[in-house]
Predict the structure.
Amino acid sequence: MQFSQMDEKRPRSPQEKKSLSYANDRRNTYGENDKASRKAIPARKAGENRKVRRKANQALNVIDRLDDENAAVIESSLKQDLERVGGWTKSPDVSLAEYMEVQARLRSWRNLSPNRQPDCEPKVS
């Protein structure tokens, strides 16, 4: 394939880049130290995997004592990996635009004088 046949990217203006950045970039607002996610997320995933393996091994240990119909149901559920359905999932991060709105509201709330009341309460998610 020649270079002239390839689709060339259209150059974006700085304003367009900024709006795309606000839409696509994400911020962690879970409430803990942002560095803690590096260890907490893999630990939770590992714990979920251990829980699933433990339940599968317990089911396999009793499968030889069951009748054929119940054994087939257990075997089918293990093949379909039904224990994983509905397990732990990471809460999604907030887009940068939403995060900046919340930060601006909190900043305006902090800058109020003591005897002046805001029009509305700051919304913290």
